Amino acid sequence: MAASTQKTSWADDVDELEHPKNEDFIDENGIRTVVEYTVNDEGKKVKITRRIKRTLQKSIVEHTVAERQKWAKFGAEKGKKAGPDRATTTVGENVALKLSAGNKVGEAEPAPEENVKQQLARAGAGKVVCRLCKGDHFTAKCPYKDTLAGLETADAGLGDDDALHEPAAAPAVGAASSGKYVPPSMRGAGGARVAGESMRGSSGRDDLPTLRVTNISEDTQENDLRELFGIFGRVARVYVGRDRETGYGKGFAFVSFEDRAAAQKAIDKVHGKGYDNLILSVQWSQPRPEQR
DNA sequence: GATGAGCGG
Description:
Oligomer: single chain
Structural class: alpha+beta
Largest sheet: 4 strands, antiparallel
Protein name: Eukaryotic translation initiation factor 3 subunit G
CATH architecture of the domain at 205-284: 2-Layer Sandwich
Subcellular location: Cytoplasm
Family: Belongs to the eIF-3 subunit G family.
InterPro entries: eIF3_g (IPR017334), eIF3g_N (IPR024675), eIF3G_RRM (IPR034240), Nucleotide-bd_a/b_plait_sf (IPR012677), RBD_domain_sf (IPR035979), RRM_dom (IPR000504)
Strand order of the largest sheet: 5-6-4-9
Number of helices: 9
Strand content: 15-25%
Helix content: 25-40%
Shape: flat
Region (Disordered): 1-21, 187-210
């Protein structure tokens, strides 16, 4: 084992051979671009370009970690400047772990069923096929969405034919006896659903009383606006218009209230008022173009 | 001055 001094690691060799040089830089907008070269299943070389917008969080690094970053480098890196050298070090993004009900742990390979889906997908490669009526539009835009949507679940217990022939009529209660769980909002596609219509169909959060707030500073956050408008009533939704690339605000936002009166009050009170050294403009928003 | 993202392969 008295070996010759091999300074480079085996990993270096592999990288050199297989891949052209990877790139990693941050442009003037603060957008980081990472270019990777890799080899795919078919043995073809693939170039992967990822553009990562800067994070708006002020402090994403724990104090103790920040301290450590100031340590002088040692060993082979001795004398190099502080901070990760992108040529040798991969810096991971912060990963937020999201847990949700029904999350499948360690979900393995696709079931046989999956192949069917894939075949369907391939048959219409590049085409749009509605899952509900097989038309050439997105499911979300299906003209029969309202009538067919709830039936997807109910069908299973009913047999497709009947349901499709008489959609609006009333597959109704039968579904309940199928043994399959049907959420309350979906029960009784015909009559009973009218009562619960507010949740799912065409109405719902889309027609919440919404204000457009303009002339906000570019770093105004959703929370700032919640805070500002929350005093008038329950705020259902806040959207801040941002540049998708940079993450900077574009100077406007939408604030939806649950209660129209509260929204009106907010207009009266906030429109023309100063905020962040800017004069806010608050008015009713125009509904976004057709979205069903 | 400015009227939303993303879903769907």
